[in-house]
Design the sequence.
């Protein structure tokens, strides 16, 4: 171990002790892993790639990080677009499959799924988005 290969980064003693409580022998590896993860998630390349990721639903494009919701029996159920997939409860669905899964029976996804893309400030019914694209 060459000391010139390392740097000291000041963090609070309280925070470091909390980390040691959970990872007594590998705290330094946890910190390194978090920094690598942060750098990867915030790289210019990943930002550019995210601009092109999304789900194509006929003539409606749902960008990465789009939120999808559906109301059934007074309760909202949420899914999201991650990369080029719609994810609900850890599984991948098409819009139709998602609507049917949440409802428990056959539903028209255009008429029951509400969409909020990353650039949107309000939810919009999927059918309205489709009509805007025609």
Sequence:
């Amino acid at each position: 171990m060459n000391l010139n290969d390392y740097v000291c980064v000041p963090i609070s003693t309280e925070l470091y002790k909390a980390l040691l409580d959970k990872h007594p022998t590998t705290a330094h590896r946890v910190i390194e892993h978090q920094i690598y993860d942060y750098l990867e998630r915030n790289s210019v390349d990943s930002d550019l790639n995210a601009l092109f990721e999304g789900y194509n639903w006929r003539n409606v494009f749902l960008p990465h990080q789009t939120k999808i919701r559906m109301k059934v029996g007074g309760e909202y159920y949420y899914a999201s677009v991650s990369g080029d997939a719609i994810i609900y409860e850890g599984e991948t669905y098409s819009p139709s499959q998602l609507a049917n899964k949440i409802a428990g029976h056959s539903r028209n996804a255009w008429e029951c799924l509400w969409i909020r893309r990353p650039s949107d400030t309000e939810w919009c019914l999927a059918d309205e988005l489709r009509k805007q694209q025609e």
About this structure: The CA atoms of residues 21 and 27 lie 9 Å apart. Residues 27-41 form the longest helix (15 residues). The mean pLDDT is 87. The radius of gyration is 21 Å.
